[in-house]
Specification:
Strand order of the largest sheet of chain B: 1-2-6-3-7-15-8
Radius of gyration of chain B: 23 Å
CATH superfamily of chain A: Spore Coat Polysaccharide Biosynthesis Protein SpsA, Chain A
Order of helices and strands of chain A: HEHEHEHEHEHEEEHEHEHEEHEEEH
Oligomer: heterodimer
Distance between the termini of chain A: 37 Å
Strand content of chain B: 15-25%
CATH topology of the largest domain in chain B: Aminopeptidase
Shape of chain A: globular
Number of strands of chain A: 15
CATH topology of chain A: Spore Coat Polysaccharide Biosynthesis Protein SpsA, Chain A
Helix content of chain B: 25-40%
Largest sheet of chain A: 8 strands, mixed
CATH class of chain A: Alpha Beta
Number of strands of chain B: 17
Number of helices of chain A: 11
Structural class of chain A: alpha/beta
CATH architecture of the largest domain in chain B: 3-Layer(aba) Sandwich
Order of helices and strands of chain B: HHHEEEEEHEHEEEEHEEHEEHHEEEH
Strand content of chain A: 15-25%
Distance between the termini of chain B: 23 Å
Shape of chain B: globular
Largest interface: A-B, 27 and 19 residues
Largest sheet of chain B: 7 strands, mixed
Number of helices of chain B: 10
Number of domains of chain A: 1
Strand order of the largest sheet of chain A: 1-11-6-9-5-2-3-4
Chain lengths: ~325, ~400
C-alpha cells in the first residue's frame, strides 16, 4: 500500500487561514466558487451556516461567489429562513423538472451542479451546530493553492450532541469504523488513508463532479470517493482536519439504514468495475424488527438505489455550460 | 451633540447592513463555554476576532482580560472604556450552540452576555462602516471573572492597574433594551453552610435537620426591621441541601444578598445576620458557617449628570424609554473609582439565564446605535465636567 499520500495530502485548517492569500490566488486564477447546502428540515442550523459564511467569506473576504440552498421539500421553515438570510434557495424538484424527480441528498448535490456557476463547488451539510467559516475556507485552500488537487474531503474529531443540552466529548463515525473502513481495508487499502470518507463536507472542481454519477441517497459520499479514485487516482484527493464538528446524534436503527445503503453502493460499484462477480442482483430491502405486543414485526426500509448519471451527459447541462 | 443625535436613526440602518458580521461575532464567541474562572478559550477567540478586525492594539492585561484599543485622533484626551463581561453561569457540559431563526437567537448564555460580547467585538467594524473617528482611544474590554464568586475581579484589576485617567465608560449587557443604569447599590453576597455531624454524638438527643436550621435562619432574617431609607433589602436567592426524601438533611446551603444604597446599612444588616447565625449555631449546637462571597460599594452619578442626560437624549432620539434601576455590575467599579459610566442593554428577550434563553434580533440594531451615540457623547466631552455626585 502506498502510504505517502496520508503525509503529503493531509492538511490542517490552520494552514489556510490567511484568507487574503486565498482571495488573491483565487482572483489570479480567475476562479468562481459556489457554496451549496443540501437541506431537509434544517431550520435549527441553516441560518447560522448562511450568516457565518456570508459574513466571513463573502462580505469580509470575497472567497465565495454564491451561496445556494437545495432543499428536498422541508416541511419546517428551512426555506423561509434561508431566503430571509439571503441564500439562493431552490427546491430540488424545480431544477431540471423534465427529469424524473428523486428525493435524497445525492439528488440535491447533483442538481446543484446545474444551478451553480462556480468552477469550484463546496458542499457542506446543513446540520453543523458548531459551524465556522473554516469549514469552507479550509476545503478551498488545497484546491486554490495546489494545482494537482481537485477534490478535498473534511475530517475531524466528531463529538456528538446527546440528550437535551449535554455534549459528549468524543464519538460518532460509527458507520465509518464498522462498515466503510473494513470494506476499504478489504478491497482498496489505499483508501483507508481517507480518515472520514463519510464526512458530508467536501469541495472540488466542477470538471470532477460533472463527470461522475451521483447516487441519490446516503451512498453519495462513498461512491464519489470510489469514482474519483478510479478515474483520477488518489493524488488528486486531499483531506483537511477541520478540528471538531458537532452534529445531531442518530440512533442505531438509522445508522443501520445508512450502512445498508453504503454497502449497497459499494458492492454495486465493485460489480460495475468488474472487481467482484455477483451471481444475482442484490435485494433492495433493509429489514429491521420491532417488538410490538410481544410479537416481532418487520420494519422494512426499501431503497430504490437510483443513481444520477454524470451530469455532463445531460443535454440541458451541456447547453447551459456550453460543453 | 445635536448634530450626531440627528444621525442616530440612520445609523440603525447602516448597522443593520452588517448584521451578518455582528451575528457571526455573537455566535462564534457566545458558543464557547466560559463559566466564571474558565474563560480562557473565549478570551482567545475574543482576541482573534479583534485582531481579525485590524484593531490598532490587541492585548491582555496582567489578569488576562482581553483588550482591543481603537486609536483616537487626540494624544491628550483620556480613553473611553466600553466593557462587557465574558463569563457565563453555564458550565462546559452545557450545549452552547445557538439556533437562529428569522428574528431570534436561542441558546445558553445568549442573554447574559453573548450579545453584549459579540457587539463589543463588532464595534471596530461598526465604527468603520459608520465612518466614525473619535478623539479618545476607545478601549474595548471583555472582562473575566465577573459573575458570582468572580466578584468583578476582572474589571477591578483592569481599572486598578490602568495607569492613565479614564474619560468615561459604557458597560454593555445583552438584556434589556431600554435599561439605563447609572447607580449601583452597596451589596454583600453571602452563603451560609450548615453541616450536621453524621456521627451520633452525646450532644444531640434528636438529630437536627440542616434544612430546618437554615429555615430558622431565614425566619430570623425576615424578622429584621429594614429601613425604607436608606433603601435596603435582603434577597434570599438560593437554597440547596439534603440527600433524599426520607432522610434528615445533614447539609444545607443558603445564598443571599444584602442590598442597600448605603454601605453603612449593608454593614449593619450584615452584622445582624452574623449575630443570627452565631446565635442559632450556639442554641442548636450545629456548625453554621457564614461566608462572604463578594462586596460592592454603593456608588452613583446623579440623574442630572451630563452623561446620564445625554444618554437619555440618545435613547429618546431612538424612540427608547429609559428605565433605571440599581445595577451591581462592572458599572459599580467604574463609579466607585469616580469614573462616569452607564450600563445599557442591547435587545429584548425571554428565559433569562435559562438554557433556552432567546433574544430578538431586530431591536439589537437600535441597541447598538444607542451605544454608539453614548460613546459619541462622551467623546464630545459630557464627562469632562466636574464630577457631580
Amino acid at each position: 500500500m502506498k502510504s505517502t499520500w496520508l503525509e503529503k495530502n493531509t492538511f490542517h485548517y490552520s494552514e489556510f487561514n490567511d484568507l487574503d492569500r486565498l482571495v488573491e490566488e483565487k482572483q489570479r486564477k480567475n476562479l468562481k466558487i459556489s457554496l451549496c447546502l443540501p437541506t431537509l428540515n434544517e431550520e435549527k442550523t441553516i441560518a447560522k451556516e448562511i450568516l457565518i459564511m456570508k459574513s466571513e467569506l463573502m462580505t469580509r473576504y470575497p472567497l465565495l461567489d454564491e451561496l445556494v440552498v437545495i432543499d428536498s421539500g422541508s416541511t419546517d421553515k428551512t426555506r423561509e429562513i434561508a431566503r430571509a438570510y439571503g441564500a439562493d434557495v431552490y427546491e430540488a424538484t424545480e431544477i431540471l423538472p423534465d427529469l424524473e424527480p428523486f428525493k435524497g441528498k445525492g439528488e440535491n448535490l447533483w442538481k446543484a451542479l446545474y444551478v451553480t456557476k462556480g468552477d469550484i463547488i463546496v458542499y457542506l451539510d446543513a446540520d453543523i451546530k458548531n459551524i465556522h467559516h473554516r469549514f469552507a475556507y479550509a476545503l478551498l485552500g488545497p484546491l486554490i493553492l495546489f494545482d494537482n488537487i481537485k477534490y478535498v474531503k473534511a475530517f475531524y474529531d466528531r463529538p456528538i450532541a446527546i440528550g437535551k443540552s449535554k455534549i459528549r466529548p468524543t464519538g460518532g463515525g460509527r458507520v465509518t469504523e464498522l462498515v466503510v473502513r473494513p470494506m476499504f481495508s478489504l478491497f482498496f487499502p489505499e483508501l483507508t488513508q481517507i480518515l472520514q470518507p463519510l464526512s458530508g463536507e467536501y469541495a472540488g472542481f466542477r470538471e470532477i463532479f460533472e463527470a461522475i454519477p451521483f447516487p441519490i441517497g446516503y451512498g453519495v459520499e462513498t461512491s464519489m470517493i470510489l469514482d474519483i479514485y478510479e478515474k483520477w487516482g488518489l493524488d488528486v484527493i486531499a483531506q483537511v482536519d477541520l478540528d471538531r464538528r458537532i452534529h445531531r446524534n442518530q440512533d442505531t436503527r438509522a445508522l443501520g439504514k445508512m450502512a445498508f445503503v453504503i454497502l449497497m453502493t459499494f458492492i454495486n460499484r465493485k460489480n460495475k468495475l468488474g472487481l467482484i462477480d455477483l451471481k444475482e442482483d442484490l435485494f433492495n430491502e433493509m429489514i429491521q424488527y420491532n417488538l410490538v405486543k410481544n410479537e416481532y414485526k418487520p420494519d422494512i426500509f426499501q431503497i430504490e438505489g437510483h443513481e444520477r448519471p454524470p451530469i455532463i451527459e445531460i443535454p440541458a447541462y451541456r447547453e447551459k455550460f456550453k460543453k | 451633540m445635536d448634530s450626531y443625535l440627528d444621525k442616530l436613526p440612520e445609523f440603525v440602518d447602516t448597522i443593520k447592513s452588517i448584521k451578518e458580521t455582528i451575528i457571526t461575532n455573537i455566535v462564534l464567541i457566545g458558543q464557547i463555554p466560559a463559566p466564571t474562572f474558565k474563560e480562557k478559550r473565549r478570551t482567545s477567540v475574543f482576541m482573534e476576532r479583534l485582531a481579525d478586525f485590524h484593531v490598532d492594539e490587541c492585548t491582555t492585561d496582567g489578569y488576562r482580560n482581553p483588550i482591543g484599543i481603537v486609536k483616537g485622533t487626540s494624544e491628550t484626551k483620556p480613553p473611553i472604556f466600553v466593557v462587557a463581561h465574558l463569563d457565563t453561569i453555564w458550565g462546559t457540559d452545557i450545549d452552547h450552540y445557538y439556533t437562529i431563526k428569522e428574528n431570534s437567537i436561542t441558546g445558553a448564555g445568549i442573554m447574559d452576555n453573548s450579545i453584549g460580547v459579540g457587539v463589543l467585538v463588532s464595534l471596530p467594524e461598526i465604527f468603520r462602516k459608520l465612518n466614525l473617528r473619535f478623539e479618545s482611544d476607545i478601549v474595548l474590554a471583555g472582562v473575566i471573572q465577573s459573575l458570582g464568586k468572580g466578584n468583578l475581579r476582572g474589571i477591578r484589576h483592569l481599572l486598578k492597574t490602568w495607569s492613565t485617567p479614564i474619560r468615561g465608560a459604557v458597560c454593555i449587557e445583552s438584556n434589556e433594551l431600554g435599561r439605563l443604569n447609572y447607580y449601583a447599590d452597596g451589596m454583600t453576597r453571602c452563603e451560609i453552610d450548615c453541616n450536621i455531624s453524621t456521627i451520633n454524638g452525646w450532644e444531640h438527643k434528636f438529630k437536627p435537620n440542616a434544612i430546618l436550621i437554615l429555615n430558622e435562619v431565614i425566619n430570623q432574617i425576615l424578622k429584621l426591621r429594614l429601613p425604607q431609607r436608606p433603601r435596603s433589602r435582603v434577597i434570599i436567592g438560593k437554597m440547596s441541601g439534603g440527600f433524599k426524601h426520607g432522610m434528615i438533611a445533614n447539609d444545607a446551603r443558603l445564598g443571599f444578598e444584602i442590598q442597600s444604597n448605603s454601605d453603612k446599612m449593608v454593614k449593619s444588616i450584615s452584622n445582624n445576620i452574623k449575630d443570627i447565625v452565631e446565635g442559632i449555631s450556639h442554641e442548636y449546637e450545629v456548625e453554621l458557617k457564614l461566608k462572604t462571597l463578594s462586596n460592592i460599594h454603593a456608588a452613583r452619578i446623579k440623574f442630572n449628570h451630563p452623561l446620564v442626560k445625554s444618554t437619555v437624549d440618545v435613547m429618546k432620539k431612538l424612540g427608547l424609554t429609559p428605565i433605571s434601576e440599581p445595577s451591581e455590575s462592572e458599572l459599580s467599579i467604574f463609579l466607585s473609582r469616580k469614573i462616569p459610566a452607564v450600563t445599557l442593554g442591547i435587545t429584548r428577550g425571554e428565559n433569562y439565564q435559562q438554557t433556552n434563553a432567546m433574544v430578538e434580533i431586530e431591536p439589537m440594531f437600535k441597541g447598538i446605535a444607542q451605544i454608539i451615540g453614548v460613546i459619541m457623547a462622551i467623546d464630545s466631552g459630557v464627562c469632562d465636567e466636574e464630577y457631580l455626585a
